[in-house]
Task: structure prediction
Amino acid sequence: MVIGEAIGSTDVAIIGGGPGGYTAAIKCAQEGKKVTVVDRESVGGICLHHGCIPTKALIHAADMVQESKKAAEYGVSFSGISVDFKKTQEWKRNIIKKLDNGVRGLFKHYGITLLKAEAFFEESNKLSLHPLDENEHLEINALEFKKCIIATGSRERMIPGIEVDGESILTSTHAIELETLPESVLVIGGGYIGIELSQMMAKLGVKVTIVEALPRILNLLDEEFSSIVQKNVEAFGGTVFASAKVEKVEKKDGKVSTTFNKDGKSQTVVTDKVIVAIGRVPNAEQLHLDTTKVQLDEHGFIKIDKKMQTTDPRIFAIGDVAGGAMLAHKAAFEAKIAAEVIAGKSSAFDNLVPFAIFSDPEIAGVGLNETQAKEQGLSYKVKKFNSSTSGKSQIMGDKGSFFKVIYEENGTIHGLHICGARASDMIGEAVLAMEMGATIEDLSLIIHPHPTLVEGYGELADLALGKPTNSL
Ligand code: NAI
Result:
């Protein structure tokens, strides 16, 4: 023991209070465990403070502006639409505060201890705790545990040689805190974050340029999903440079000059701000895992099994730090598994992980896409339903929306993907269907309420069965 060390003890220590960590804390407490969560910021993690919630709030505000403009089509005109972005930010921060307070209230209800500190492993059953500010005093500076769940998440990947200053060269975290919108922005990376931020800003009048290294934006999706989003980026005055490699980002006279190579030619675009959104890396290396038996994979993610157990029997890992899809809902589900395993139950992760991209149009999916089905050599069939023909889509002005199913001759569904308004909400039915082993015929046998967007599932299934009602 180090002299002057004040040691606390707990059944379950959880490092990180994001959607993974706080869910794990609540689930462990429900299993009767004494739980201590250590987080250097607050509860809610990146998702609540710098990711999902703030971006979706800003996207909602931007959509409101567009919806108000579009309403003129059906005779509803607004005059003097203006955006007070400071107020938008204030509103966004209020939502975050309420949700943060909500989680803290739940912690209180369940008797969960929350410590604001930086945690490192000292050994397989002990954490060392450090204040973030040297002048701060911690009541305990070490925490012994029976089990530990690492839920430290991920952070933005940086581009070597490009210095993010938080002023004109930004990460997504900086970008969503801007108090005033720039006139122009160049976004490096056309993935989930790059696209969501770009479209939000473009709708609020920012001139957006996207530079993507791969041949197309949202490269993980089937081509038709990427191309509809790209068309919409362009419809709002944005420009996409795909297969483009950034060479240099320089600050010049209050602007930023980005040089990239496309088709062997160097091009330079000058903007007010640059946002770097080229993926995220796990927060694992700073945990002093060498003092435990926890192992990392070749990409720096913590190795876990289906029970969320690491290679150290006392230690579990969940969420972004443990690899797989970097999605809050996956982390939260893994948290449930870890808590149940710690409570002695025979739980294991064996779930489909849906995704939802809050692009315009929204895209959501579950299971395999066509590219993956092809790569796996499956004898699959594809059917698409152009749902923009449906009554509700037309009322909502949802152009170009569609449902796509990847399935087998016998009706087994491999994947369901939706493009269009509310895709993020609608994907729930597809997840339930696939988790319950529903076939195409089962989807066709469900009555969907009318007029709704979810009717698309029924029509899609009927199309696949060769007997569509509202389409050919
Ligand atoms: P991403 O991995 O989705 O996309 C990064 C993109 O940057 C890729 O298309 C990649 O080809 C490109 N890129 C990489 N290096 C580049 C370079 N030097 N120059 C130009 N392009 C380059 O990562 P992103 O968008 O940063 O998101 C990180 C994670 O956050 C994702 O894995 C996602 O799971 C999660 N996320 C989820 C959201 C949701 O569920 N709606 C929203 C936002 C993020």
Summary: The pocket of NAI is lined by residues 159, 188-194, 196, 211-214, 219, 246, 277-280, 325-327, 355-358 (CB under 6 Å). The chain has a mean pLDDT of 97. Residues 361-464 form a domain with the Enolase-like; domain 1 fold (CATH 3.30.390.30). The radius of gyration is 24 Å.
